[in-house]
Design a protein that fits this description.
The chain is an alpha+beta fold. It has three helices and twelve strands; from the N terminus they run βααβαββββββββββ.
């Protein structure tokens, strides 16, 4: 069996120039000492290369067929987890039992929809979505029956969830709405 490893030795040009300098000057007597000192440097510059591992290749279908999962929030009773995934090609909200099993799809929207959070005391959820890919995200409320309502106060302003209040009865939102003054 043949060993596929190779040895590469690199002699720096400066070392070769030193050898030439000592051979062409009054240091001729020191030449054997210089060469004796340079031999270890030559071997230090040699290294054994390991064979490269083969890189696994994927088809474009395999590459594009990845499912992305993001975000999470526990339900008020801490028995389910709310998250977002793009299994259908579009991000939608899902929940799954903490004991495992199949995720339950909560939204079937054509717009990218990110699950934000369960409400602290019930299973209503907050979501964020744009309209037709315009990237002007609004905050939406999905009630326990599955009805979805845009609760962003400004039509052309981008809004995002900034967290629940300390008493957990309201939440903060951020917006890029400009003051006309």
């Amino acid at each position: 069996m043949r060993d596929n490893t190779t040895v590469n030795c690199i002699i720096p040009l400066k070392i070769l120039n030193l050898v030439n300098l000592f051979s062409n000057s009054k240091f001729l007597k020191m030449k054997k000492y210089v060469i004796f000192l340079l031999i270890p440097i030559f071997f230090i510059g040699c290294k054994k290369e390991e064979p490269r591992k083969a890189v696994k290749k994927y088809t474009i279908d395999q590459f594009m067929n990845n499912v992305s999962i993001r975000g999470s929030s526990f339900s008020p009773d801490e028995k389910k987890i709310l998250f977002t995934r793009n299994e259908s090609g579009v991000y939608n909200a899902y929940e799954i039992s903490i004991n495992g099993g199949e995720p339950k799809q909560l939204t079937q929207r054509e717009e990218t929809t990110y699950a934000i959070s369960y409400f602290p005391e019930d299973e209503r959820i907050l979501m964020m979505s744009d309209q037709g890919g315009n990237e002007i995200y609004h905050i939406y409320l999905r009630d326990q029956e599955g009805n979805i309502k845009d609760i962003t106060p400004y039509e052309k302003a981008r809004s995002s969830f900034a967290g629940w209040s300390h008493d957990r009865n309201s939440f903060f939102m951020a917006s890029n709405k400009r003051n006309p003054k």
